[in-house]
Amino acid sequence: MSTLVIKDLHVSIEDKEILKGLNLTINTNEIHAIMGPNGTGKSTLASAIMGHPKYEVTQGTIEIDGQNVLEMEVDERAKAGLFLAMQYPSEISGVTNADFIRSAINARREEGNEISLMKFIRELDKTMDFLEMDQDMAQRYLNEGFSGGEKKRNEILQLMMIKPTFAILDEIDSGLDIDALKVVAKGINEMRGEGFGCIAITHYQRLLNYITPDHVHVMMQGKVVKSGGPELAQRLEAEGYDWIKKELGIEDETVEQA
Amino acid sequence: MTVETKLALSAEEVSSFSQSNNEPTWFANLRATAIEKAAELPMPKPDKTNITKWNFIEFPAHTVESEAFNSLDELPAEIKEIIDIEGQENLYIQRNNTPAFLKVSEELQSQGVIFTDILTAVREHGDLVQKYFMTEAVKVDEHKLSAYHAALVNGGVFVYVPKNVVVEKPLQVVFINDNEEASLFNHVLVVADSNSSVTYVETYVSTVEQSKGQANLIEEVVALDNAQVTFGAVDVLAKGFTTYVNRRAHLKRDAKIEWALGLMNDSDTISENITHLVGDGSLANSKTVVVGRGEQKQNFTTEIRHWGKNSEGFILKHGVMKESAQTIFNGIGKIEHGATKANAEQESRVLMLSENARGDANPMLLIDEDDVMAGHAASVGRVDPVQLYYLMSRGISKAEAERLIIHGFLAPVVNNIPIESVQAQLTKVIEGKVR
Q1: So what CATH class is A3-94+164-248?
Q2: What average pLDDT is seen over chain B?
Q3: Where's the SUF system FeS cluster assembly SufBD N-terminal domain (chain B) (predicted)?
């Protein structure tokens, strides 16, 4: 079992503090949903864990099985087992999707022990079929000209090919129609199991209809303010966030005025 | 006032070189006139690069003797890689100034296609060569370097594709430079007669680290009505050359040219790639990639000049600059009066990999006609940190991520090089340069 532990995390972007002391512990074989209204710091958490260059961690720790993640470069974090399915994946012209994914897989292997081309192609074909993706997406340039839905599927394709220990899904459901959402959920459920932990960040309960979380956390004002089981997500769906604000005496849930 | 330049060869030396080649009178006369003009004419003035201190004149030897290759087995390994030894049916190899190997398929011969070295062509196909040699595309008296070139031509290729002939397989040319003393005054002349089609791919490759010579290269493409020419080139000349390379096309009605140029010299280089869209409905697609490194100074001018109605020109240039390389990218779309419905588009992008490198992209649209379309895009920038972050977030190291982004950036041109082995070589050269 692996554990990702986030303690007292403070994160700023351009000198503005977004996360203000966030705590979260995730084990493999668990799926955690992080919910909350817009502007409460959810995506900042995802970017800070992965090491986005614009986000500065000013206080606190992130550890995987005791290893200090904050000291690692972005690629080292990935190799330590982290994966972020991004809300806005970059488009990279001239680099085919297949070449990119193969480079990512080989980056985790020793020199001389690279995945064989045949084995790679077999796995890629199989996974693309599973995600109902056109085979020609393998030879298209990375995310270039992909629709919103294609980009999200492509993030899940990478997730399934790379098989990280912990995946963070940053609003993987935004902009997806119901069929695409089901496919994306199918991919994540396929990963679910002993060697895999997941943080799914979302505004909406609807993703959680297809991926049942083990734990649900609500973020407001740059912190986790409430945690519970799947029933918490259902209550949020039915009643919205106002009851939590009332319960905790929060007037404005966003980071800005907090 | 004109200042006479002292040239490296005298008129007598030029004349005796011509005689030693048994050249016909018209060509001997062309050289004689050219050497006189070369002394007087001004230097070309590439926009934004001052070349007054560059040495385009002096060299250790006008020609050097090299051994020919009896078979392709004798080629050095790095040259073999460029050639599909079994599959390449039409191949010319020049070693420094010596025609070193020629293979022309029976099919090509039976179609009446001429594919031979330029000085042989001058002797054996004089009428054709005389008609097109520096008459349509480049003129002898444009400036000092064009005249100097005409006087000193010591190598090159002549291709003639007769009317209605479609050459299916690419013609390949390899110019090997394996002698430090060698100077290259290569003249390439490709004439595609009406309704014909041909793909020509050349590679300049130095196997010496350092050169002391001149590379003064003029390459002309003349495409007659409805002819189609695909012209691929990879230049990898050594440091030490002063390179002036002029690739120019002259297109008649409905003719088309596709340029795919990988300009990877380690020498200081002035490169001009100009296409004259003379005929109505003619089209040029000019794609160039460049990598500059070290202390290199380079100037790349790509120009498409529209004379014909409905003519279309597309320029795409991508350059990567590292270390202290200095590079000017001039892109010119010029639409002459009367070229109605012409379309001139261009895109120049420079990726800077070091603080000390300098790159400048100058798009110019010069339009003398109202009823036209034109557009340009230019940018000079660094590797996008968000792209790097994305690739690295999958475990790819920073160096490998940069490599992927750079190759991707150059891919639109690399993928257009027509012969696979040459494409692979270009990829390898880029690999070696950007690492």
Answers
A1: alpha beta
A2: 96
A3: 106-173
Q: Which residue has the tokens 């025609």?
A: B99
Q: A160 in contact with B at a CB cutoff of 8 Å?
A: no
Which residues in chain B are contacts of A90 at CB distance < 8 A?
A: 384, 386-387, 389-391
Sheet holding A197-202, edge to edge: A82-85, A166-170, A197-202, A31-35, A215-220, A223-228
B400 vs A51, A90, A103: nearest CB: A103
Gap between the Cα atoms of B356 and B351, Å rounded = 13
In the DSSP assignment, the letter for residue B2 is P
pLDDT tens per residue, range A55-95: 999 999 999 999 999 999 999 999 999 999 999 999 999 99
Closest to A133 (Cα-Cα) out of A155, A101, A163, A116: A155
CA B392 to chain CA centroid, nearest Å: 37
Q: Do B390 and A90 touch (CB under 8 A)?
A: yes
In 3D, which of B190, B200, B184, B172 has the Cα closest to residue B81? B172
Q: For the CA atoms of A245, A248, A251, A254, what is the dihedral angle to 10 degrees?
A: -70
CA distance A237 to chain B (A): 32
- Say what the ipTM of the complex is: 0.96
Q: Which of the residues A49, A92, A110 would you substitute to probe the B interface, choosing the one with the greatest number of B C-beta atoms within 10 Å?
A: A92
Task: Judge whether B390 is closer than 8 Å to chain A, CB to CB.
Answer: yes
Chain B partners within 8 Å of A84 (Cβ):
393
Give the bridge partners for B261, in sequence order.
B233, B288
Across the interface, whether the CB atoms of A99 and B389 are under 8 A apart is answered no
Tokens representing B158 are 């002549």
What's the half-sphere exposure (Cβ side, CA atoms, 13 Å) at B174? 30
Interface test with B, best of A75, A143, A159, A168 (most B CBs within 10 A): A75
| DSSP label at residue B353 | -
How far apart, in whole angstroms, are the C-alpha atoms of residue A98 and residue A120? Answer: 9
Contacts of B386 in chain A (CB under 8 A): 53, 90
Nearest to A52 among B384, B389, B401 (CB): B389
Contacts of A114 by beta carbon, 8 Å cutoff, 6+ apart: A106
- Span B343-386, pLDDT tens digits: 999 999 999 999 999 989 999 999 999 999 999 999 999 999 99
How many Cβ contacts (< 8 angstroms) between chains A and B? 83
Question: Which residue in the block uniquely carries the two structure tokens 């609500």?
Answer: A218
Rounded Cα distance, B378 and B347, in Å: 6
Q: What phi, psi does A79 have (nearest 5°)?
A: -70, -25
Predicted local distance difference test score (pLDDT) of residue B2: 56
Contact of A93 with chain B, judged by CB distance below 8 Å, is answered with yes
